[in-house]
Design brief:
Length: 152
């Protein structure tokens, strides 16, 4: 399967997956990550701060609790924390499902993610980031026009 091949690569990857609701995107992505160190987070329509706190809880569940992680208060710092942890667990997969719920609450998130990606921090641990969404038109607009991610 294409998703598994991407996750098997010995390099960092940023994958954008989108399609209509209820067609199996999440199940496909979860299945591809079986047996891998996976941080799976499904965003909800709550504030950015609440989503961030829930994401940190999932990171701590997978990577172990950390006072450093608990003290972080912005997305970029959290992504860097995960990238650093991925050095010890190469190929860590971070799946953010319904990513547009995050973007709705924090319009800067895509540019923050781009800056993180462009920093090269994901390379050392071959971090895999998967962004998934169901609002097809919005996903196409976000990824084709607003944000350009370069390869790792």
């Amino acid at each position: 399967m294409a998703a598994e091949r991407e996750l098997d690569k010995r390099s960092a990857s940023l994958v954008v997956a989108y399609g209509r609701r209820r067609i199996g995107k999440s199940r496909l992505l979860r299945q591809a990550a079986v047996g891998r160190n996976e941080i799976y987070f499904q965003a909800t329509r709550v504030s950015s701060v609440l989503n961030m706190e829930q994401f940190k809880l999932e990171v701590a569940r997978v990577l172990g609790p950390s006072p450093v992680l608990a003290s972080l208060d912005n997305w970029e710092s959290i992504f860097h924390f995960v990238a650093e942890a991925a050095k010890a667990k190469p190929g860590t997969v971070v799946t953010i499902d319904e990513v547009l719920y995050l973007v709705d609450q924090d319009s800067a998130l895509l540019s923050v993610l781009q800056r993180f990606w462009d920093s090269g921090a994901a390379r050392a641990g071959n971090l895999k980031i998967i962004l998934c969404g169901s609002a097809v038109a919005q996903m196409r607009t976000c990824w084709r026009k607003r944000t350009r991610f370069t390869g790792a």
